[in-house]
Amino acid sequence: GGCRGARAVVRCGGARSARVVCVATPSKPPASTAPRRSKVEEIKENSDFLRHPLMEELKSTEPFINEPAMQLMKFHGSYMQDHREKRAFGQGKFYQFMMRTRQPAGKVSNQLYLTMDDLANEYGNGTLRLTTRQTYQLHGVLKQDLKTVFSTVIKNMGSTLGACGDVNRNVCGPPAPYTNRPEYAHCEKLCHDLADLLAPQAGSYYDVWLDGEKFMSLERENPEVTKARADNSHGTNYVGSPEPIYGSLFLPRKFKIACTVPGDNSVDIFTNDIAIVCMHDDAGEVYGYNIYVGGGMGRSHRNNATFPRVATALGFVPKEDIFYAVKAIVCTQRDYGRRDDRKQARLKYLINDWGIDKFRAVTEQYYGKKFKPMEEEPAWEWLDYLGWGEQEPNGLLYWGINVENGRLRGGLKKALRQVIEDFNLTVRLTANQSIILCDIQPKDKAAIEAVLSDLGGYREEDVDPIVSGSMACPAMPLCGLAIGEAERGLPDVNLRLRAMLNKVGAGDAAPIVRMTGCPNGCARPYMAEIGFVCDGPNTYQIWLGGNREQTRLAEVYAERVKISELEASLEPLFFVYQSKRLGPEEGFGDFCNRLGFPVLQAYAKAYTESPIAEAAAEAAPAAAVSGKLPRVMVDADAFAALKELASRRGVTLTQAASDAIVAASKQK
User: Fold this and answer.
1) Phi, psi of 342 (to 5 degrees)
2) Are 213 and 301 in contact, with CB atoms under 8 Å apart?
3) Most buried pick, 39, 211, 223, 618, via CB within 10 A?
4) Contact, 497 vs 466, CB < 8 A?
5) SS3 category, 104
6) Residue (of 627, 522, 542, 523) closest to 589 by Cα position
7) Closest of 160, 71, 95 to residue 342, by C-alpha
8) Among candidates 163, 178, 189, which has minimal Cα distance to 259?
C-alpha cells in the first residue's frame, strides 16, 4: 500500500537506551505488530552514531569487514567492493575499497589534487575517477591502507564525510570559475554552507580515522549555518543529541542537493532531492531562491513501483531563509520517508504518494512560514564548460578538458599532474565527469596546451561531441550492483553511434548519450537523449526522448536489445531523424519526443522491411569512405513508381534510380 507517514517521533536526549521511532508505515499496518524496519535502520540505531562495529572491524586481520560495518562505512565515504576479475580459483572474493571525496561545487585546491594523484598511485589502482556529482573516487584501496588514505585526505584539506550513506551527499553546483559573476560566487558559497549544515556532527568520523583528533580546517563554518542547525523553533531537532538534525537513525535513504543560477543546468538540477536556483538582480546580487523537490534517478527492473522522477516546484524563499527551508525539507523526509522498504525510501516516493500540496503544507510546519510563489526563470541550457574561457575579461583563463567517462589514467593523468603542479593551478570537477583547469596566466596557455598534447595525447579538436557529452558509471568489474558493462563499453558504442549518424547523413548531430550497468541511474541515463541501461547479460534497455537541456525524462523505447545489434534498433531512427527533423537545431531527443514512439516504431519497421534497407546496405561502402550516405528524398508516388521500375527491370532501387537520372540528364 501507499505510505501514510504517521509521525511517531520520540526526540531523545542522547541516551543510548532510548528507542527512537521514526517510521513511515504502510497504509494498512498489522493491528498488533510494530511497523517493520529495514535491517539497515537497526544497524544505524545501534552503531553509537556510526562508530560500531566499524572501528572493531577495521582492526581485524581479515581483508574485508562484516555487513553492519560495511553499511556504516558508506557514511564515512567508502564502499567495500569485490574485483570480480581478480578472483583466484578457490580463494573467494578479491576485496578492496572505493573511497569517495566530498567536493562542494566540484572545487579542488592545488594541494588536494596533488594529494589525490599521489594516493591513486601509491594506494589505489593508479587511476582517479571523476564522478557525476563532482567528486573523486579512488578505487583499489586495500583494507590495511584505509586509515592512511583517509587521514591523508583529511589533513590535506579534503573530506569524505557524507560522500555516501543515508545523509546529504555532495552538494553540486556550477563549476563555472568566473571571478566577475557575483551570482556564481554566491552559488558556490551556498554549496559549501549547505554541505556544512547537513554534515554529520557526532564526531565518529574523526574517532575512526584520526583517533578522535578533530583536524582543524583553515575554513571556519559560516556562523549563520551554526545558528540554523541549532535552531529548534519549530520542532526540527533532536534535543541533546550529538546529531541534532539526523538523530541516531539519520535519513531513510541517500539525499542529494544541487544549486545553480537561472538558466545554467550544468548540474542536472532536476535530478536532485532538492534543487535550488539562486535568483539574482541585474548586478548579480542574490535576493532569494526558487526551490524544487523530489528528483531522483534510481529504479529497479521489473518493479513498476520504482521510477525516475524530475523535481517539482515547491516555492520561493527569501535569501535569509534558505538554511531553514532546506532543513525543513530534510526533516520532513527524515520523519515521513519510508524506513520499511529502502526501494521506496527516497523523497520522490513520499512526494509522489502525498502530492506536492500536502508535502508543502507539512514542510511549512517545520519551516514556520509559507513558501512564496516561484519566481520566473529563463530557459535552461546544458553547459559543459569545456574549452578555453576567461574567468574575467582580460584576466586569468580556464580550460575545460574532457575526461572520457571520468577515468583519469595513463598519459592524460601524468600530463594533468605536471601542469597543475608546475603552474600552481586549482581545479574544478564537472557533473559531466570532466575537469576544468583554473587560474591560468594567459602567458602560460601555449605551454600548458603543449604538455597536454605531447605527454597526454589530448587534442581538444579531436574529441567527438558525442564523447564529450556522454557519461557512464564504472559498472564492471568493481560495482557489486552491475549487471553488465558501462564505462568500458560506452567508448565503442559512441563510435558506432557516430558511424550510424554519418551513414544516414546526420553527421552534424551529437545526441547526449549515457550508459549504466544497472538500473540505479548513477550516470543519469533517464535524462539522456539516448540512454542505455543494462538489463541482462550483454543486453540493454534503450531510453529515448530526454532533451539536451536536461529538463525532461526519457522513456523506454526498447528492452533487452543485444549490444551487438544496436544498429538494427537505432539506424532506422537516425535515418528518419535526418529525413524529418525540423532543422539542425532540433535535437534527437526533441525529435523522438515530438513524433512519439508509435510513429518511430512504424518508421523503423518500414525501414527494415522495405527496399530502402537494401539501398542503404548497397551504399554502405561509399558511406564508410565519405562519412555520409548519399541519398535523395522522393515522395510516396515517386517511390512507388521507382519500386515498380526496379522490379520490372530486375535491378536494385539504387540502380533503377541512377539509370533514370542519367537518362534524364542526357535529354536535350
Assistant:
1) -65, -20
2) no
3) 618
4) yes
5) helix
6) 542
7) 71
8) 189
